[in-house]
Design a protein that fits this description.
Oligomer: heterodimer
Number of domains of chain B: 2
Strand content of chain B: 15-25%
Order of helices and strands of chain A: EEEEEHH
Strand order of the largest sheet of chain B: 2-1-7-8-9
Number of strands of chain B: 13
Number of helices of chain B: 16
CATH class of chain A: Mainly Beta
Strand content of chain A: 35-45%
CATH architecture of chain A: Roll
Shape of chain A: globular
CATH topology of the largest domain in chain B: Rossmann fold
Radius of gyration of chain B: 21 Å
Largest sheet of chain B: 5 strands, parallel
């Protein structure tokens, strides 16, 4: 539970300043940006996500390394399960081609 | 070194391990505590113990929030959800954790409306979607998760959601470290500071550990190389007779922490006068409760909580293991009465608990090799 999940900010929503669509390994979910109020990310930025909230901005390199860490720790499947579960919603994943 | 070939840069790992061996005085025994459950998990997963010199011991601290939660709190939370109008929501980690009357999952099997959420904001979403039900979120975690719970409560109030509450079990890491340092049988040399807790609280709250207690502390990342580098930094300090706070995980942890997260926590939570930690007992000002201004979202204010107290069996020596006096396998119950399948004590409850991690990696490995031994 103390491991954070790296994701890329894909879309921000005008009028909903604390919400963003974030992509984690191909899965897109909405996460809350409210805890980055003092240093708001923009579209294309990478963030570390914890229980549905972006906790810190990180570089792309660090994001890739963090994902690698999760894989090495054997936690990547659990992390993806968490991401898929955000929004109580498992439906909007891209279908495997 | 089972996992060494999985490391991204084995050469750098070996060089860092060599540096550790060079810095460690063979005439001295080092005891370093990692306070974060994620670090404990990583240490076993990567077999870091096999890389470290024999006189450098890693002690696994109280950083697994599931483990340190007193069993009675689970019974209390579940008791509130006996009302058929109440939906019990919690993270997946909580679902198999036993209370006296069984785990949340067992209550679900008996008909209670128990649901896994992956974010506190999803519990709030459930409340909006089910206006005729009361959605209670069973909140646990250190400062990494507390801000998310806080912000969810702020949102619930702003949006006027009245069928939502939080059963708050959030704890804070600093008082637990203080309790361990104050313990008379404490024999630690240094600390590996938590990674993601520190993204929120920053490094400043650790300064007293260095200045008052003269123990070095290095905030560390979770990769094997991060942890080995942190150990190098600690050994350098110990060798120079220094004690300061250093940040090995600068790429993620700012010295000042996350201001917005601290603000949200401060807005919604205040310190409880005391709180019980499984394995450590009561620690003053070590946990958070919801401020009166948000009382309508406080399940403990809104409902009548039975206040169940459950003491762990005396034979379980979780406290000694947490303080580094005993190793997991030295506890009388380890691997016998107490296993990950049937946890008796706190540290066997979650995979991030030191006894469960030790059992899953070391104990099973030892059992497998003893069984494989030709008769």
């Amino acid at each position: 539970m103390c491991l954070a999940i790296p994701g890329k900010v894909i879309e921000l929503f005008p009028g909903m300043p604390y919400l963003a669509t974030v992509e984690v390994a191909g899965v897109r979910r909405k996460v809350d940006l409210g805890l980055l109020e003092s240093d708001m990310p923009e579209s294309g930025d990478w963030v570390l996500i914890h229980v549905g909230f972006a906790m810190s901005k990180i570089s792309e390199q660090d994001a890739l390394e963090q994902m690698q860490t999760l894989i090495m720790l054997g936690e990547s499947e659990q992390a993806m399960q968490e991401v898929r579960g955000y929004g109580l919603d498992n439906a909007d994943e891209p279908k495997p081609s | 070194m089972k996992f060494v070939d999985e490391f991204r840069d084995p050469e750098l790992i070996n060089k860092t391990a060599e540096e550790i061996r060079r810095l460690a005085d063979p005439g001295r025994h080092y005891r370093m505590m990692e306070v974060c459950g994620g670090h404990t998990h990583a240490i076993y997963r990567f077999g870091l113990k096999d890389i470290l010199p024999a006189n450098l011991e890693l002690i696994h601290g109280p950083g697994c929030p599931v483990c340190v939660l007193p069993m009675g709190r689970i019974d209390d939370g579940l008791a509130l959800a006996k009302d058929p109008n109440v939906v019990f929501t919690a993270f997946g980690d909580m679902m198999r954790v036993p209370g006296v009357q069984g785990s949340p999952l067992e209550h679900k099997a008996r008909g209670m409306d128990v649901r896994i959420v992956y974010s506190p904001s999803d519990a709030l979403k459930l409340a909006k979607a089910n206006p005729d039900r009361h959605i209670m979120f069973f909140a646990i975690g250190f400062e990494t998760t507390a801000p998310s719970t806080a912000l969810t409560i702020v949102r619930a109030k702003a949006e006027g959601i009245h069928n939502f509450s939080v059963f708050c079990n959030h704890v804070t890491i600093i008082p637990a470290i203080r309790a361990i340092l104050d313990s008379p049988d404490m024999r630690l040399d240094a600390f590996i500071g938590p990674g993601h807790v520190s993204t929120v609280i920053g490094c400043r709250p650790y300064v007293w550990i260095a200045t008052n207690e003269h123990k070095p502390i290095v905030v560390s990342g979770f990769e094997p190389l991060d942890m080995l580098q942190s150990i190098v930094m600690l050994l350098r300090q110990l060798k120079a007779g220094e004690a300061k706070v250093e940040n090995q995980y600068k790429r993620v942890v700012p010295w000042e922490g996350n201001r917005a997260a601290l603000k949200a926590m401060n807005q919604v939570f205040e310190l409880r006068p005391y709180f019980e930690w499984r394995g450590l007992g009561f620690i003053s000002q070590s946990a958070l409760r919801i401020r009166d201004s948000y009382a309508e979202f406080d399940a403990e204010h809104r409902f009548s909580v039975p206040g169940v107290r459950v003491t762990d069996p005396k034979a379980a020596q979780c406290g000694e293991v947490l303080k580094g006096v005993l190793k997991p396998a030295q506890c009388k119950l380890f691997g016998k009465e107490c296993t990950p399948e049937h946890p008796v004590g706190a540290l066997m409850v979650s995979s991030e608990g030191s006894c469960a991690a030790y059992y899953n990696y070391e104990h099973r490995k030892a059992m497998a090799s003893s069984l494989a031994w030709p008769a």
